[in-house]
Amino acid sequence: MNTISFQGIEGSFHHEVAIGYFGQDQRWLGRDHFGEVFDDVEQRRAEYGVVAIENSNVGTIVGNLDHFERVNLQIVAEVYLSVQQCLLIHPDATIDSITEVRSHPMALDQCRGYLRNQLAWDRIEVSDTAGAAKWIMDQSATHVAAIGSALAANVYGMSIAARSIQQDATNQTRFWVLANESEGVHPGLTNIESKKGSISFETSHDSGALADALVAMKASGWNLTKIESRPVPEVPWRYRFYCDMELSSKTSLPEIVSSLNSLEQQEIIESSRVLGVYPVNHF
Amino acid sequence: MNTISFQGIEGSFHHEVAIGYFGQDQRWLGRDHFGEVFDDVEQRRAEYGVVAIENSNVGTIVGNLDHFERVNLQIVAEVYLSVQQCLLIHPDATIDSITEVRSHPMALDQCRGYLRNQLAWDRIEVSDTAGAAKWIMDQSATHVAAIGSALAANVYGMSIAARSIQQDATNQTRFWVLANESEGVHPGLTNIESKKGSISFETSHDSGALADALVAMKASGWNLTKIESRPVPEVPWRYRFYCDMELSSKTSLPEIVSSLNSLEQQEIIESSRVLGVYPVNHF
Fold first, then answer.
1. Domain spanning A193-283, CATH architecture
2. d(Cα A242, Cα A187) in Å, to the nearest integer?
3. What's the CATH number for A86-162?
4. Is the CB of A237 less than 8 angstroms away from the CB of B225?
5. What mean pLDDT do residues B263-274 have?
6. Which CATH superfamily is domain A1-82+171-181 in?
7. Considering only CA atoms, which of B224, B33, B39, B246 is closest in space to residue B127?
8. A168 vs A9, more confident
9. How far A216 CA lies from chain B's nearest CA (Å)?
10. Is B63 on the interface with A (CB under 8 A)?
11. How confident is the model at residue B54 (pLDDT cuts 50, 70, 90)?
């Protein structure tokens, strides 16, 4: 049994991902803020952390890239979740008794098509989908529905009045599993589809250094899939670049470290880091 | 006289930038949301719009990149503002009578060092720095201070009790001036320091297409300074890339369009757009 730190409370989408990856039988540590999850793992209060890094509609959660500069952790797996929103009600309630719906603003927005048929319902925005579910049970609020995960219904003993009520069937979220050690720690992984790597670096001040760096990476056989620029603190308009790459199954972490070292010696990049070399898993 | 649409109310940092660029004698159209500024210019309710695109500490305001996909506008200038936060009080107040401070959470955070010496003050978070200033005057609230710009003090007739109280002297924000036409429209520009261009594109599905695209751009003499990946709506994990580039003074917009067309014909990139070729101005 491991201790797993995640953002949110039990029944949240982070908790759903963590159960899918590690199984039910773990010690769960739900946190209000992403930064606490990074700290839990680095300070060994938890063996693993689970954090969302990107949503296919909304984009990157850039604050979680920035946390990597504070703590020295490794990404040990990437996990994808297709967000399935459900309408959750008290077990003594029926859908006809509902006059109010509560959820996170993003979840309410994702279900705007469904809610257009329920115009009489008041909409209350709260900070957490699972928190809305828990509140209904704590208050025995039979007139209120929550929008959240099937897991939240399970955790809090609620009825699911409707399933898959989100507007966009393609909405997915990408999560990273974090640990202190770098390789060989994928306890929950049964279905490895591909291998990826993530790195961060700054470039030299030379014109065209970023293009040079990406060319060298392509020559190493790394297929760059995504790049983000994040500000370097207190140095206006200097950036730290975050790259995700598809790797061949035989590319190893030491090989990537060595390629980055060589780019540093050529003064194309500086302050490079490998955030992880990891398998990819879909539920 | 032109009509200038900007985010915020009179006295906001956007208004400060717009006055610096266009001068005082304009028609001002303050808006709650950035999207309205884009719409105002496209629908010709305003000749120009002013929107923040990036802060040197916080990073890019990615929603404003996304707005470019909805509307067909051009960036006609880039303007930098060093954020100077002031403590603003009612002209009948003294600093000793203050028991509460109001501002935007980001402004309160930027002034955390100054506020550490004023622990007895209650802190109230509001959505708008200039709005906090206006509220104090509307309410004749002599016990409340706002954190905001010197311009807000001027607009609302307030006293400046302290200047430059922000923590980080390097904090700058980068703004874009938007218009329908592309070139030759820089009415307020007196001090052109350099020339930049911004483009957006998707890449082909080929491995390494992004590196190929950046190499071709480097060969054209464009110095890539920044790149962002934004999700393509409803196509999970496809990205639209936004690049800012430093250009030589003689690089023209048609030249960039022609280079991008050539990359499209080679099937390296697709759906490319030039967001603007524009001069850079610091206040």
1. 2-Layer Sandwich (3.30)
2. 26
3. 3.40.190.10
4. yes
5. 94
6. Periplasmic binding protein-like II (3.40.190.10)
7. B33
8. A9
9. 9
10. no
11. very high
Domain limits, CATH 3.40.190.10, in chain A: 1-82+171-181, 86-162
ipTM over 0.85: no
Query: How far is it, in rounded angstroms, from Cα A275 to Cα A76?
Result: 9
Give the range among A70-79, A189-198, B197-206, B261-270 with minimum mean pLDDT. A189-198
Residue among A170, A236, A237 whose CB faces B236 most closely: A170
Nearest by CB to B59, which of A172, A230, A235?
A230
pLDDT band at B170 (very low <50, low <70, confident <90, very high): confident
- A 200-219 near B (Cβ less than 8 A): 207-208, 210-212, 214-215, 217-218
Q: How far is A204 from chain B (nearest CA, A)?
A: 11
Chain B CB contacts of A237 below 8 Å: 56, 172, 174, 225
A15 with A8: CB under 8 angstroms? yes
On whether the CB atoms of residues B221 and B248 are closer than 8 A, the answer is yes
- From residue A58, alpha-carbon distances to A116, A198, B66, B213 in Å are 22, 20, 10, 25
What was the pLDDT predicted at A283? 62
What pLDDT does residue B256 have? 93
